[in-house]
TrEMBL record:
<dbReference type="GO" id="GO:0016705">
    <property type="term" value="F:oxidoreductase activity, acting on paired donors, with incorporation or reduction of molecular oxygen"/>
</dbReference>
<keyword id="KW-0812">Transmembrane</keyword>
<dbReference type="GO" id="GO:0042632">
    <property type="term" value="P:cholesterol homeostasis"/>
</dbReference>
<keyword id="KW-0443">Lipid metabolism</keyword>
<dbReference type="Pfam" id="PF00067">
    <property type="entry name" value="p450"/>
</dbReference>
<keyword id="KW-0479">Metal-binding</keyword>
<dbReference type="InterPro" id="IPR001128">
    <property type="entry name" value="Cyt_P450"/>
</dbReference>
<dbReference type="GO" id="GO:0005506">
    <property type="term" value="F:iron ion binding"/>
</dbReference>
<dbReference type="GO" id="GO:0008395">
    <property type="term" value="F:steroid hydroxylase activity"/>
</dbReference>
<dbReference type="InterPro" id="IPR050529">
    <property type="entry name" value="CYP450_sterol_14alpha_dmase"/>
</dbReference>
<dbReference type="GO" id="GO:0008202">
    <property type="term" value="P:steroid metabolic process"/>
</dbReference>
<feature type="binding site" description="axial binding residue">
    <location>
        <position position="443"/>
    </location>
    <ligand>
        <name>heme</name>
    </ligand>
</feature>
<dbReference type="GO" id="GO:0020037">
    <property type="term" value="F:heme binding"/>
</dbReference>
<dbReference type="InterPro" id="IPR036396">
    <property type="entry name" value="Cyt_P450_sf"/>
</dbReference>
<protein>
    <recommendedName>
        <fullName>Cytochrome P450</fullName>
    </recommendedName>
</protein>
<keyword id="KW-0472">Membrane</keyword>
<keyword id="KW-0349">Heme</keyword>
Length: 497
């Protein structure tokens, strides 16, 4: 078309042309972009089978987002043990065969750090440069501080705090039965003691009311954790809970004495290892990691025990042998111990707590473990007959892996006895169990978690009579990044023994 012909168009034709160009232009660009993507995929030697959806960027985001836990199961049944999902601009390749876990955990080009960096920026405002520099150091400090050998003082301190909180919930109506929602009860009795233990009372300086408000914000923060990477406009409410918690953490790390005599709490370790500007963000991540799994797992353990009369009966028998209250309290040579002489529980005392409770905890973790863990592929990785391209997120799903018949016969059944073959005092796990992840960045809090859970459940069942009123709810299909939350409420009757 020359200038003359162009000029001969009347104004409405101009408008028409401009509109057509405005519509077709982006479509052509989109088409070209899709073609180049498609061609680059074709050049790869055998990428895993995939679910892409029709809409670029969004991919299968809508189906996936509705019930991610079930969507993974459906695609697993359709495409097999390795598959890729394209959703909201991310390419996630799932490995659901436990046999691939050693490649997953050991290959350097499946990077934990690269997968975590964007997420921690979004979820806790940690700057990427700080994360690259300090993450490994802070991981190693926690791993070192939470080994089995360091648990005794933590166990003693926690037991006193649990005792106080448990009695606080029921003492007002001593002798009477109280009806409470179980998850609510667990949150109220577990959150405060663990937060105080991890960050230190002197650094926290929070009133009971402030701890309650911290818990309310934490519940919202955890529930919508998965939206962290969406633009702020879609998750304003979630953003305000994050800011609230970051502000608390800012005060907490600000109170850590410059020259602490003994490094004891998470806040002190964090301040000693990272740049001050990002210390609140690391503290928030530790708060989330420590609570988002242990609280729901306590709920599931209790509800599974209460709904399995044989298991509960066995535990009640074993509890008779566990002296939670002191037998000897000598004053001027006279033994003044009675039924109410509660003393801190030492870690060695915990070894005598019901082993069936510990097996029940491991079984609850198996059945309700995190929906996924992530790594990022930095160089193409060959797995089975496929090559997973660089840039993909590489996912394993402890929740789905723990339903593999080969490792866990009758996988949906709650059966603490399947753990009989493991030495639970040494925290030995069954083959196929990956609830705490694996490799260089495996959960550094796992030994603390098992001690904390064993102590908490044993104390609850020793101190209280509990009966289920409702049926045990199903796990919510929405939770992918932490242990499963219950879908709906579960009321119990509680009475102080
Ligand atoms: C039943 C309870 C728990 C479960 C199932 C659990 C599970 C996990 C999993 C799967 C990971 C990722 C590991 C990987 O990708 O290989 C992780 C990381 C982590 N966990 Fe746990 N965890 C639990 C309790 C705790 C507790 C009580 C703490 C702290 C006291 C804790 C602290 C952490 C931290 C700090 C990380 C991040 C490690 C890093 O960034 O290098 N966890 N946990």
């Amino acid at each position: 078309m020359d200038v003359y012909t162009f000029q001969s168009f009347s104004p409405p034709q101009h408008l028409l042309l401009a509109t057509v160009a405005a519509v077709i232009g982006p479509l052509l660009l989109l088409f070209a972009w899709s073609c180049s993507k498609w061609l680059s995929q074709q050049r790869l030697p055998n990428p895993p089978p995939s679910k892409k959806g029709w809409i670029p960027w969004l991919g299968v985001g809508l189906q996936f987002g509705k019930a991610p836990l079930y969507y993974i199961k459906r695609v697993h049944e359709e495409l097999g043990d390795i598959f890729t999902i394209y959703a909201v601009g991310k390419r996630m390749t799932f490995l659901l065969d436990y046999k691939d876990s050693s490649t997953y955990f050991k290959t350097p080009s499946a990077s934990f750090k690269e997968a975590a960096i964007d997420f921690t920026t979004a979820a806790a405002s940690i700057e990427p440069t700080s994360f690259s520099e300090h993450h490994t150091k802070i991981h190693d400090i926690f791993k070192g501080q939470l080994t089995m050998h360091h648990l005794d003082p933590l166990c003693q301190e926690l037991s006193l705090s649990f005792y106080h909180e448990i009695l606080l919930q029921v003492r007002e109506r001593e002798g009477q039965e109280v009806e409470m929602e179980l998850m609510d009860f667990v949150r109220k009795t577990m959150f405060g003691p663990v937060v105080k233990q991890l960050f230190g009372q002197s650094n926290l300086q929070l009133s009971e009311e402030e701890i309650k408000s911290m818990l309310t914000n934490f519940i919202k923060y955890d529930a919508d954790f998965k939206y962290a990477q969406l633009p702020a406009i879609f998750n304003r409410e979630w953003g305000s809970t994050k800011e609230y918690l970051l502000n608390i953490m800012k005060k907490v790390v600000g109170r850590v004495p410059k020259q602490a005599d003994c490094l004891k709490h998470a806040a002190e370790h964090i301040i000693s290892a990272v740049d001050p500007a990002n210390a609140p963000g690391y503290s928030l991540m530790v708060l989330w990691a420590s609570q988002a799994n242990a609280i729901p797992i306590s709920f599931w353990t209790l509800s599974f025990i209460l709904s399995h009369p044989n298991v509960y009966k066995k535990i009640k028998e074993e509890l008779k042998e566990w002296p939670l209250f002191q037998k000897d309290m000598m004053i001027f040579g006279i033994n003044v111990a009675d039924e109410t002489s509660f003393n801190a529980v030492k870690e060695e005392d915990l070894k005598a707590a019901p082993p069936t409770i510990k097996r029940a905890i491991l079984e609850a973790i198996r059945l309700r473990s995190p929906g996924m863990i992530a790594r990022k592929v930095t160089e193409p990785i060959k797995i089975k007959e496929y090559t997973v391209p660089a840039g993909h997120y590489l996912m394993m799903s402890p929740y789905h892996s723990h339903r593999n018949q080969t490792y866990f016969p009758d996988p949906e059944t709650f059966n603490p006895e399947r753990w009989l073959e493991c030495d639970i005092d040494k925290n030995q796990f069954l083959p196929g169990f990956i609830a705490f992840g694996g490799g260089r960045y495996q959960c550094p809090g796992r030994w603390f978690a098992l001690m904390e859970l064993h102590l908490y459940i044993s104390m609850i069942l020793k101190l209280l009579d509990m009966t289920l009123i409702d049926e045990v709810p199903k796990p919510s299909p929405l939770h992918l990044t932490g242990s499963q939350q219950p879908e709906g409420s579960c009321f119990v009757k509680i009475k102080l023994k």
